[in-house]
Amino acid sequence: MKREILLLGNPVLRQKCKPVTEFDSIQLRRIVADLRDTLHDFRKRNGFGRGIAAPQIGVTQRIVFIHIVEPLAIINPTIIRRSKRLFSLWDDCFSFPNLLVKVKRHYSIEIRYQNEMGVKKTLKASGALSELLQHEIDHLNGVLAIDRAVDSRSILYRSEWEKFEARGQKQDE
Hints:
By secondary structure, this protein is an alpha+beta fold. It contains 3 helices and 8 strands, in the order αβββββββαβα.
């Protein structure tokens, strides 16, 4: 079921989420399905979106749902390795969809997580997937992309960014 996405300012987005302890349950399946449906609805209406974290729909559990090539529920994720190499990008978020924030992220990471059955897994990611996972795991810790802005001038409206992109100009000039 599609759920309402909480917006910047809602205190739930600043809470540190609790680990999932009951796997293969109706409740967990329902949360994962709600995350999936909410992600797909947002993507259909807005033309972007690759992942969503449980606190964005008001659930303070450590659950992330991503859909890039195929859907994946990531439960109780922890980053266990980070590259020293960083890269900058304009990040966006369902909880403030009209804003972009310039952040620095690790180029590659490795995470440990559990699937819906509680089976422990690891995942190595680089580039766009690495950035997405870092963004979503931040949500589970009550951290938002605006907290990671490279400086006070690195937050802008999406519409302004699109004006500069359309003319081929860089924002930081």
